[in-house]
Design a protein that fits this description.
With about 170 residues, the chain is mainly α. It folds into 2 domains: about 50 residues, Orthogonal Bundle (Arc Repressor Mutant, subunit A); about 100 residues, no CATH class. About 70% of the residues lie in helices and about 0% in strands. The protein is built from 9 helices and no strands. It is elongated and about 55 Å long.
Length: about 170
């Protein structure tokens, strides 16, 4: 990667990190470009070289998580239990970003990300199929369990959470 691209990547990452710092303190929709560049320690021109709005920084954060998710996903078919463990471990590693999205009231974007990952893992269902609701039920349940676990400080390891979630999804008591 050439120096200019590296510098732009560094600026984008600094702006995302600065935006995450606002989470829980200020709604991201109310963060101004001025506040963001000051927090990030970058020039206003650098912001506009990379983004046209604060919302684009949020989109960039989602793209980064999505890209890392797909890069980290093990190759080949793996059962739902192994996939769940991978997902809990992945989101544990990115807990700061996930919680920042949640605290900044940008959780819908995160739920969309989780749903898209479910669709990719399990395949999209035909619009006429009732089974398509299972996918959205599973994604929503996972999202809520994930948030509860992350906000609690992740006291259980990912493998225990994967097992517990699989049991709950099968209607079993814990």
């Amino acid at each position: 990667m050439d120096k200019r691209r590296q510098e732009n990547q560094r600026v984008r990452d600094q702006l995302l990190a600065a935006l995450i710092e606002f989470a829980g303190r200020k709604d991201w929709s109310k963060v101004t470009v001025t506040e963001l560049v000051e927090q990030a320690g970058v020039a206003r021109a650098s912001f506009y070289r990379n983004f046209s709005s604060v919302e684009e920084v949020v989109e960039y954060g989602i793209e980064q998580v999505t890209q890392r998710y797909h890069e980290d996903m093990p190759d080949g078919d793996f059962d739902s239990r192994a996939r769940l463990e991978f997902e809990f471990r992945f989101y544990q590693e990115h807990a700061d970003l996930v919680l920042a999205f949640h605290h900044a009231k940008a959780g819908t974007s995160l739920l969309d990300l989780i749903t898209d990952c479910e669709i990719e893992a399990r395949g999209d269902m035909p619009a006429s199929s009732l089974s398509r609701y299972e996918l959205y039920f599973s994604a929503g349940a996972f999202y809520n369990v994930l948030l509860c676990w992350l906000e609690a400080g992740m006291p259980e390891p990912p493998d225990v959470m994967a097992e517990a979630f699989a049991r709950m999804a099968n209607g079993e008591k814990l």
